[in-house]
Amino acid sequence: MTPSRDIxxxxxxxxxxRTPGSGCPWDLEQDFSSIxxxxxxxxxxxxxxxxxxxxxxxxxxxxDLLLQSVYHARMAEEQGHFDFGDVVEGISAKMIRRHPHVxxxxxxxxxxxxxxxxxxxxxxxxxxxxKKEAAERRSELGLPPKASNSSLLDxxxxxxxxxxxxxxxxxxxxxxxxxxNDVNAVLDKIREETAEVEAELSPNADxxxxxxxxxxxxxxxxxxxxxxxxxxxxxxxxxxxxxxxAKFRNRxxxxxxxxxxxxxxxxxxDLEEMETLWVEAKKKSDT
Length: 287
Description:
Blueprint: H1 7-17, H2 25-29, H3 32-52, H4 55-78, H5 84-97, H6 109-116, H7 122-140, H8 162-174, H9 183-201, H10 212-232, H11 237-258, H12 271-286
């Protein structure tokens, strides 16, 4: 089988990998749950390639992410639920529906939305209509209804990366006014949460340390507050942290590359030696 620019070839390759008897043993063992973590990982690798500005890597990572869609669709087709064509048709219909200012009908719908823009509430109204139609479709197919969306936050998937989910939860709550109007108030909250972490790390009256679970909860609160600060400053906290991770990688690599010049190895070096090289790396990156 040869590669091709045609999406159908990729679908055929996946079908071959999943064919009992002649397919790949590993691919045949997989199910939705086992593949889902790879889907999240590939999406993160796409974001990483974008951050690095590596277009060739982005091309490859987008292919890996596309494969995840094909993989899930193939497993669904095997179980008689839907196929890749249904996925494409569904997202095409959604994009047309959600952009009436671009794909309006002949009666001037496009002009109407173009003049008014996507007015506040239009997007939410369209999504509400989609949910209603989805519920009706599930009923027609004899499927159980989804859990009732009794909360404003129910639309935010729990499987999202934690920082991304935190920002989305905060944005959703802010729609009904549950938010700070002053970034300084968010800074005060960060100081408050930092103090609570410090308090949990201090011995109690009996001289015992608090449980890791309590410390974990306070650190989670602190991270949530930091994500909130980033949101108020219109900064993507996940992107900011990825940039810091890259900076850490580069500076630590400088330590690895130069530690031998001090006459020792990385494993035998003490913290003072590594800190000296860290400061050197920081100065070089700042110039």
